[in-house]
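[retry 2/3] NitT/TauT family transport system ATP-binding protein: previous attempt timed out, resubmitting with same input.
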Amino acid sequence: MTALVIEHLEKTYTDAYTGDEVVAIGDVSFSVSEGEFVSVLGPSGCGKTTVLNTVAGFVRPTSGTVSVAGNQVSGPGPDRGVVFQNHALFPWKTVLGNVVFGLRMKGMGRAEREARGREYLSLVGLEGFERRYPHELSGGMRQRLGVARVLATEPAVMLMDEPFASIDAQTRRRLQEDLTRIFEERRPTVFFVTHDIDEAVFLSDRIVVLSGRPSSVREIVEVDLPRPRTWASAVDHPGFRATVAHVNGLLAEGEAEGTAADVE
Ligand code: ADP
Ligand code: MG
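[retry 2/3] NitT/TauT family transport system ATP-binding protein: success.
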């Protein structure tokens, strides 16, 4: 079944200070199947966050539609879980408290939500940290907590906006491997936004490559890389290298066009 459908999405912002119109998204259409990992990839400022925020229901499209599990999105809802780049955790709640919060909102009883919370904390490698507070965790651990908190609610679509962008390179690779393992075990539906080509190829089943602003879909690339995936096996896999090279070419073309247009 199709978990997420985006049809002819367009978004024009009006700048709050100058009143100028900014066309952030020209025309974007794609869909994500249940249990599929799809990334949206493009340069900074091309409208990736706007696409994700429209799916989350934080931003209203200028035109076009977004549907999740067959229902048209008109605002935020518990069927979509968002993992933010900067965690957005509750600092006054414990690690376990952060994970069970969304479950309490869903009306789940205490014993059940604690069991579920512990299960997902152990899935992301945070077993034993239940009683700690977010400020006692490293950046990588906080991001694991952000992932556990969203996964625990078992949303129809998990939305991730450059969740590892501000994390050091070595930790980032470990988090990417963990996310891949979790994805392969649980098969959540994931809509992931990144500007990092290697990350997109390593994690995804398909990559939606956006052109520069106003963005449209340049190409949807299938990733030919068997699962289970680890970085050690991916880097030497011809499918990984070929896809990275192909996507690199698509983005370089987009940049060249952008430069030509800027000069005019
Ligand atoms: P990305 O996530 O790919 O970096 P964004 O979706 O954040 O891109 O932004 C796309 C474009 O829309 C940028 O030019 C940005 O400045 C503009 N933009 C984003 N949000 C707003 C807003 N609330 N008001 C005006 N312009 C915005
Ligand atoms: Mg962004």
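[retry 2/3] NitT/TauT family transport system ATP-binding protein: The beta strands are 2-14, 21-33, 37-41, 63-68, 71-72, 80-83, 157-161, 190-194, 206-210, 215-222.
[retry 2/3] clearing retry counter.
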